[in-house]
Here is the input.
Amino acid sequence: MSESISRLAEKTFVALANPYDSVQRTYPLAFEEAQKVDNPRYVGIKDQNVIPESLLLSLHKAGFILHTIDHLAMGGRATDNRLTNPITGRHMTGSSSGTAINVRVHINDLGIGTDGGGSVLMPALSLNLYGLISKTLSVEAVTRAESHLSTDGIMLTPTVGFIARDLKTIEDACQSIGVIRSEQTRDSVTRVLVEHALHVPIKADEKDIRIVEKQFPDSNVKRADQISFLKKALNDYDVVISNEGPVDLEGIGDTIIGHMGSKAAMIQSSGHKYLSKVVNMVDATGLVIPANSLGEGILITTKSSPHSVQTVLKVARYFEPFTDKLLDSYFTQLKIYYPRGYGYPSY
Here is the structure.
């Protein structure tokens, strides 16, 4: 067992304390299941019936143990005015809000959410987490999902996505459900479109990759225009790499707010939600990688195919992994949730 018994128990103590109101239900007996495997990792899922039990069973076989059912933004809203971002203290980005929070504060190691118009990728990035969406993660989820109109009147069908603090956890989860192969391959990625001035650290020996730079649309552009841009880009290139964020730090990227006049529109565009909110709408596979700046990162997008997850993960490995010792040390201290307080005896 890679994680100590006491640490596993602490995760459940925090889930039961529910300091961010992000947990809807905790399964304390996950502790028993975790002791049966070598490398247990706790999982939280968004409270959505789109997420099938078959996905959880596949993950369970690889040591991913269901630990919590997570709160979500009401009505699939892009901002969650009931939950608080544990880093900024502002309203949490939606709609897989509780799932992302529970990963950031180390209640869970893997979060499973649903994404219609950025509802996995954006909450992940708002907390400097990794996020992946792809229809290949669960065929059953695709068949179970119901199409509906977004708040800005665009038809969408939600898909499943993963959230984690590190890329390896997402890779392990993808491997456990069979969407990537364990052996290293050299799948062809020849044409990469990169947002202008974004540095992509492709190794010099990667002669099969050709990078083209181009100016991308900003957050003032309507979502329909972003959809048209990304569709064309994915027809012309194998992979598209863009800047994202800072998410909901300087504004609130929410259509319910943004439709109410020019000042509200400025507030919405200052939420800096770019192509991440249309990845699912063009049936693509997308992976967000956090940067060292709050709420910022990059998005790697490719057409959904049997090998699309492997493609975005391959490109992701060129980028420096995100780590933040302060975030990890602060949110893993049990005493911030259970302070000893006045009157506790001195031992």
User: Anything to note?
Assistant: The domain at 5-320 is CATH 3.90.1300.10 (Amidase signature (AS) enzymes). The longest strand covers residues 64-70.
